[in-house]
Amino acid sequence: MKFGTQGIMAVDYEERINFDRMRKERVAKIKAEMAKTDFGSLLLFSSSNKRYATATCATSPDCDNNGRYAIIPRNGEPYIFGFGSEVAAAKLNCPWIADRAYPAHTTMFGALPSDWGAAQNFIKDLAMVLDKHGIAKSEPIGIDILDSQLILALQDAGYRFGDGQAVMLDARMIKTSDEIQILRNAAATVDAAFDALARMIRPGVRENDIQAEASRVLHTLGSQWVINVQVTSGSRTHPHPHLSSDRLLQPGDLVFLDIDTLFNGYHTCYYRTLCCGKPSEKQKDIYKRTYEMLYAGIDVVRPGMTTADIVRAWPDASYWGFTNEAQAFGLAFGHGIGTGLWERPIVSRLYSLEHPVEIKEGMVIALETYAGEGTDGARIEEECVITADGVDIITKFPCDELIACGATY
Q1: pLDDT at 407
Q2: Domain identity same for 86 and 132
Q3: In the chain, N or C: fewer CB atoms in 10 Å?
Q4: Which long-range contacts (CB under 8 A, 24 or more apart) does 325-329 make?
């Protein structure tokens, strides 16, 4: 395995990301997981799954989820049904799928009323693919996300379906070498964003100003879509609201930020906590507890261990003053990351103790922890590539101590 980032542009003088290899390996993994089921085909609407299966994309996730779909026959290559003129662009620019690109017939998540017939045209698309590959209508279809109008239309037409999302998440769980390299590059763009934000944090800056600057940096460095820049400051940091606002920063505020961007089809999930000015001793202690909690979990991560081993290194819900793990869900947490933000395995005391999942080489897991007291809270997250020897942390912006930004009085 190569360590560290490489240039983000393809060049002739060294091999970097081999996109053709990555596309073929991803489809092969889907087929391997399909072979464990009785599905004759997969029907995919989720942006994460369509990108993984077809290496195509369009505009925002809202438009992508509602306006496009992919069909993967068990015995054939993926098809993409795109949004209008996108199909002409795919035929021109995507030779790996050009002869399997067709216009989509979606309900636009119900925006087209059922009596307008969009669902019937959608069913014709499905039947066309199944007929081409000799797949009987009686064979179940694996689906991920589907609007109610299409579900009812498929049922009325006599189709059966099952959990295709599980097939895709299992296929996506172990990353290829090319996927890992993209994830490294994606994390590096967020390193740069955090550097810019640390330089701008000062009294009078608003949380949404910080969001705007992060988005500017990330798009400049090649992000296709900045999914979320969550900025939480001052008295809003405890309890954790999972929401940004237009609050003005003040001297002494803790500021934690979660940056989720989409770079070459792959997500980041990357928290850091900074301080506007000089932190108090209490704030330093909260931060230290967050950091030590995080690394107590990271220190046990290696192939052969399980998600249960990770959560045993973390406190239970009572640490945050809650009475059960559902109330504390997400405060000490981990998840796979890839073309989706939340992939397998999920790491949480709510589930992992009873349902441990083995940690395997090639997984990429984001681990995140939180501590808070009074009106101060801190959160830190690291993205970890699981290697034969342990973990390679690809999130490089420093977090071993709380950084004071702007005024230091």
Answers
A1: 73
A2: yes
A3: C
A4: 325/349, 325/350, 326/350
What confidence score (pLDDT) does residue 6 get? 86
Across the range 354-382, mean pLDDT stands at 98
Domain span at residue 271 reads 174-405
Q: How far apart are CA 183 and CA 341, in angstroms?
A: 12
CA distance 304 to 152: 44
Last residue of a domain, one of 157, 172, 187: 172
| Coil/strand/helix, residue 364 | strand
- Residue 178 in any domain: the answer is yes
DSSP 389-404: SSEEE---S--SSPEE
pLDDT of residue 134: 98
Q: Measuring CA to CA, which residue among 100, 41, 24, 101 is closest to residue 75?
A: 41
Does one domain contain both 106 and 203? Answer: no
Which of 128, 156, 172 corresponds to the end of one domain?
172
Element (H, E) at 261: strand 254-263
Mean pLDDT of 138-142: 97
Query: Does residue 8 form part of some domain?
Result: no
pTM above 0.85, yes or no: yes
CA 406 to each of CA 73, 184, 203: distance values in angstroms, whole numbers, following the listed order: 56, 29, 8
How far is CA 137 from each of CA 30, 73, 103, 124, 266, rounded to the nearest angstrom? 21, 12, 22, 12, 34
| pLDDT digits 0-9 by tens, 24-62 | 999 999 999 999 999 999 999 999 999 999 999 987 777
User: Do β-strands 161-163 and 141-143 pair in parallel, antiparallel, or remain unpaired?
Assistant: parallel
Q: Domain check: are 151 and 251 in the same one?
A: no
User: Mind listing the pLDDT tens digit for each residue in 218-273?
Assistant: 999 999 999 999 999 999 999 999 899 999 999 999 999 999 999 999 999 999 99
DSSP H or E segment with residue 62: helix 61-67
What average pLDDT does the chain have? Answer: 96
Residue 142 lies in a domain: yes
Residues 144 and 185 in one domain: no
- In total, how many domains does the chain have? 2
Torsion, Cα 360 361 364 365, to 10 degrees, reads: 40
**Domain match, 192 and 82 both:** no
